[in-house]
Amino acid sequence: MNTYSQGAKQNRAGELGNVPGRSERFLADNDQWYFQTREGAVEGPYASRNQASKALGDFLEFLAMATPKINF
């Protein structure tokens, strides 16, 4: 599988100082595209990088709306 980087070595808006370590989320294998979560799960395949990018956006939106689990 090949990974594709897009600006991974640049500070994001509002960040100062050294760029923290980041990994690319998009992978390609035999014309199929995937994205990787922070947890290490690989999601896909998708027919294009654009479709994988949209699916990643949907996944991140879902996470943002999820209620955090609090353990006491």
SSE blueprint and pairings:
Elements: E1 2-4, E2 26-29, E3 32-36, E4 42-46, H1 49-65
Antiparallel strand pairs: 1-2, 2-3, 3-4
Describe the 3D structure.
The chain is of the alpha+beta class. It has one domain (2-8, 18-65). Helix content is 24%, strand content 24%. A hairpin with a 2-residue loop joins strand 2 and strand 3. It is extended and about 40 Å long. The relative contact order is 0.16. The model has no long low-confidence stretch (mean pLDDT 83).
Key features of this structure:
72 residues, alpha+beta, four-stranded antiparallel sheet, 1 helix, 4 strands, extended
By DSSP (H or I, 4+ residues per run), the number of helices equals 1
Query: How much of the polypeptide forms β-strand, as a percent range?
Result: 15-25%
Structural class: alpha+beta
Number of domains: 1
Summarize the structure.
By secondary structure, this protein is α+β, with helices and mostly antiparallel strands. Helices cover 24% and strands 24% of the residues. The protein has one domain (2-8, 18-65).
